[in-house]
Amino acid sequence: MDKGEKIWYNGQLVDWDNAKVHVLTHALHYGTAVFEGLRCYKTDNGPAVFRLYDHVWRLINSAKIYLMHLEYEADEIAEAITATIKANDLPECYIRPIAFYGYGEMGINPLKNKVDLAIAAFHWGAYLGEDALTKGVRCMVSSWRRISSLTLPPQAKCSANYANASLAKIEAVKAGYVEAIMLNTQGMVSEATGENIFRVKRGVLSTPNAAAGILRGITRDTVIQLAADMNISCHRTDIAREELYTADELFLSGTAAEITPISEVDGRQIGNGDYPITRKIQQAYDEAVHGRNKKHTDWLSYLK
After folding, report:
1. pLDDT at residue 108, rounded to an integer
2. Contact 34, 66 (CB under 8 A)
3. Does 139 lie in the same domain as 275?
4. Cβ-based neighbour number of residue 24 at 10 Å
5. What CATH number is given to the structural domain containing 273?
6. Active-site residue, 157 included
7. Of 6, 53, 85, 136, whose Cβ has the fewest other Cβ atoms within 10 Å?
8. In sequence order, what DSSP letters do the residues of 39-69 get, joined into one string?
9. pLDDT tens-digit readout, 132-168
10. Averaged pLDDT score across all residues of the chain
11. pTM score
12. Residues ≥6 apart with Cβ < 8 Å to 221
């Protein structure tokens, strides 16, 4: 991670090294934090945050699920995000807002603790590796199952959920793969550790539906809309493990990973090594985030 200059913390911009929490912070012990990941891109009209308010509202809704009282409205959070980017003088960057139950009372019940809000912005390149966007990534199906919605709410982007993802990621990396694909408790494909997954078969896109235990990704939604623009059929449906192996193409979608092809799953090459539909989606996504897609200019919030 490239260190920045300032972090927005409870209403103030503080020096990067001074954005600290107490060791007895509730979220550190019990995973009671919700967060977002956004990107700011260069465009011909200056830097712009991609789908800013969609991310802000998901943060607010995640906090609502965990009964976190945020002291800031959506506009205030959006303004804080742009102020953080400007304070770090970053024309392109990744942004991480996080709300969490802070220091106060110890114990499982977090409700007596103040909710803190912090926002960091920093340069973050290709999340899954420098060659991932062009060559694709090798994946394995994890032995760890994606948490059920009866266990933790997957629609809240909560740090506790990512302990589950971390176990799968560690397993994959230790086995020599780049990323893990997780099945749900019914044995159907859910998502990767930090990305949604899409399958291409005979020119038709499919992706697991919300009932599969996925986070409804904002990049996932972007892909679905871009596919519709190009008259590419897309279905939200169950995907079996073996349907990964027999796909013509597979790709991951996420703010950090953007649109990343999958070259292999469990030692099986996906398709013929070419990604024609994925490339179309990649190109359309690149045009959208850089302000060259005139249909979706509303997806961009310009800093100036």
Report:
1. 97
2. yes
3. yes
4. 12
5. 3.20.10.10
6. yes
7. 53
8. EEE--TTS-EEETHHHHHHHHHHHHHHTT--
9. 999 999 999 999 999 999 999 999 999 999 999 999 9
10. 97
11. 0.96
12. 54
Catalytic one of 3, 112, 114, 157: 157
Tokens 């994946």 found at: 139
What's the angle, vertex CA 98, arms to CA 299 and CA 116, rounded to 5?
130
Could you write out the DSSP letters of every residue in 112-126? TSPEEEEEEEE----
Q: Are 7 and 16 in contact (CB under 8 A)?
A: yes
Integer Cα distance of 283 and 263 in angstroms: 18
Residue whose token pair is 């694909």: 181
Residue 243 within any structural domain of the chain: yes
137 with 282, same domain: the answer is yes
DSSP 3-state assignment of 23?
coil
Confidence of residue 210 (pLDDT cuts 50, 70, 90): very high
pLDDT(267) > 90: yes
**Which residue in this structure is represented by tokens 């993802």?**
165
Say if residue 113 is in the same domain as residue 137: no
